[in-house]
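Hi L.,

You mentioned the student needs an example of a multi-chain input paired with its predicted structure. This one should do, with 229 residues in total across all chains.
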Amino acid sequence: AQSVTQLGSHVSVSEGALVLLRCNYSSSVPPYLFWYVQYPNQGLQLLLKYTSAATLVKGINGFEAEFKKSETSFHLTKPSAHMSDAAEYFCAVSDVDTGRRALTFGSGTRLQVQP
Amino acid sequence: DAGVIQSPRHEVTEMGQEVTLRCKPISGHNSLFWYRQTMMRGLELLIYFNNNVPIDDSGMPEDRFSAKMPNASFSTLKIQPSEPRDSAVYFCASSLGQGLNEQFFGPGTRLTVL
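Structure written out for the whole complex:
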């Protein structure tokens, strides 16, 4: 069964600094991968997704992620953090090789942005 | 587009009571997902439907939980009887397809069982 591991339940950066949120996946075949963001008291919103096309995926709000098969990683980055980026971020995987195609989510990483 | 609609937004009930959570997916979407989010267990898939048919209910905790989708525009998640450990935020999401496409999440229902 596929799974994702998010390293670091909390990440704190200064405004303007690089954001790096880590996600590693475990899957028998290259999966589809997603990053979602959850703002306080809201549902999840898709940031970006990888579906076996380009390995560097650009999403909304200046975020991007790179699929690295050799490292089984799909880390999320943003060159310059903004205060409005403070939220919880979830990596998710959908295994294309099985009949069960619902998403499996990681445990989440809470991003704090310091002024 | 109104997005995924969930009701109620907040529910406080006493142990043993029946709780019904409701979801209206985005019009035209044919897959619907129920998730539960807690601090201890994170975001868990409970059940998902495709074309109103339950495809995978392996995440449903126990027989106290049941879900229905009588038509393409409505789904319910029922807990009977409710217990304090059921306290969580329950999310409904919908998508076009079975998970390979973006899932659109509702705002969630925060359930507190006293």
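You could point out the following to them. Chain B touches chain A through 21 residues (CB under 8 Å). The mean pLDDT of chain B is 92.

Best wishes,
N.
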